[in-house]
Amino acid sequence: MSTYRTHLLLCGGTACHATGSQAVKEALLKEIAKQGLEKEVRVIETGCNGFCAQGPVMVVQPEGIFYQKLTPKDIPYLVEEHFLKGRPVERLFYVEPASSETIPGMNEIPFFSRQVLRVLRNKGAIDPEKIDEYIARDGYLGTAKALLEMTPDEIIAELEKSGLRGRGGAGFPTYLKWKFAKASPGEVKYMLCNADEGDPGAFMDRSVLEADPHAVLEGMIIGAKTIGAHYGYIYCRAEYPLALRRLDIAISQAREYGLLGKDILGSGFDFDLEVYQGAGAFVCGEETALMHSIEGKRGMPRPRPPFPAQQGLWKRPSVLNNVETLANVPQIILKGGDWYASVGTEGSKGTKVFALSGDVINIGLVEVPMGITLRDIIFEIGGGIPDGKKFKAVQLGGPSGGCVPEHLLDTPTDYEAISKVGAIMGSGGMIVMDEETCMVDMARFFIDFCKEESCGKCTPCREGTKRMLEILERITEGKGEIEDIERLEELSRFVKDSALCGLGQTAPNPVLSTIRYFREEYEAHILEGRCPALVCQALITYSIDTEACKSCGLCKKNCPAEAITGSKKPPEPFVIHEEKCIHCGVCFSGCPFDAIKKSSGSKVARAA
Ligand SMILES: Cc1cc2nc3c(=O)[nH]c(=O)nc-3n(C[C@H](O)[C@H](O)[C@H](O)COP(=O)(O)O)c2cc1C
Ligand code: SF4
Ligand code: SF4
Ligand code: FES
Question: Which pLDDT belongs to residue 603?
Fold first, then answer.
């Protein structure tokens, strides 16, 4: 076996694929061969490194140097300078936006330094397509311990000690779910993994599957042994091709190594599984809909009870766990429940992975100890808001969640503390919004999403989300009435209380939390015909500042509605004609001299 002096851990996650990591990989291999370094420098394609906004990214080991935004053009110089002559290339290092400091080492970059990696411990560190690399980092030791040394009750006790709660959104204690399914009578039981991940902006589960698929397989094997299941399914959306490919590879390698199939590790325990591809419907993430979908039926929820632990897939006792929940299990078994519970808060133990996105400098995947405040995640790890803009709110938990305003930024990431302020921990989607976000429009976006994704089985959700969307649309168009706020609150209560499944029961959350914290924005739209964030198209007026205008003519040329007149020769001022303007904003974003102004005035003044 060759020993390499340098390992190049090039990110092969979905985001880095999209920004060209494959071309960078080809350039690296070519240049390494050209320089005769094939026996000394090895390229390893890893799963998502987490710092997706800087992609394609690469970590050089053993030094731990972090290169970002690589292009194939950078490679010949990089290989010659760093890997041949030993001089790292500074211009490809990360530059901290706040201080403009150049930081070579990955662990010194603030985005990484506050993270505690448990679920993501192998991200960017191993080739996820090679089981040996996983095994070399204690892979399958948890499985071996659970299968060869522990009884199901001991596994349940360890999970109880750990305090692990389901990471799919509801935060239900994992040990209890397993205990109920174990206690359910039946020869045939199923162990299931939920990799549907339908929340807009969420990519935690996809990244775990891409970076460390064996950790999830281990969680499923241990769960199966605990409840007495011999077959399982991973329900993963078809839009995740890389995760699906890596899962397929991981499953066949695990079978080859005797870690799936008959008599695993000589324990006498049999378990195998398959991947079921979902078509990407949000409602199919709901547990009973997911099970219907695997059964080949339309993905629609059913009332509970009976709960899946008694009657799940094909009416057999079943456990469904989220990807991140399962990826935590092997480490808990190996290191113990007390180790796991050593970080976190009283009611929320361990770490949580968040997908940080929106108006934040460092977009990416972060794993932090539970209890860390939202402020720490957004401002210390996330680097704050770009372009010197002000923070407005953070949306947690996607369409089922709520938004948290600035004065509550010191709320800890704890299931109970977050629901107290009207949001939910959810599966870990964290969308940061700056001062240019309209909160009414944001509520409209999420209700529109839920209306589209409602399966239509029950009337409150099917009709209630439609009616709520109609009201929100008329408010964003400046046609609302003050009673609409109360109507929204009333409808929200009705839909929450009477919808059949979690989709409908939580769909009103974004509306309720924006009314709770940003009522004045609703009132400005309704009473003054004004969108304070200058987002709602119908309430915006564009005008040209004649002093700043250089008469270049670009806006007139680009306007699709021919709403702009003016000329340089003979000199005639450029003017936007409101009656023709369709408020598309093309002139505003295209003016090279920032001479076009956006404003949102009073309804009365415009009507006159
Ligand atoms: C509309 C809807 C969508 C859901 N989508 C997901 C999902 O994509 N992934 C997930 O793990 N859980 C999702 N859930 C939660 C699951 O129903 C279930 O609670 C979870 O998979 C259980 O795993 P856990 O106990 O490990 O969290 C969704 C729930 C609802 C109501
Ligand atoms: S609440 Fe909505 S998604 Fe759930 S069953 Fe009813 S109609 Fe379908
Ligand atoms: S693009 Fe700007 S500078 Fe050019 S004519 Fe229009 S407003 Fe004036
Ligand atoms: S995909 Fe490369 S850092 Fe996330």
Answer: 37
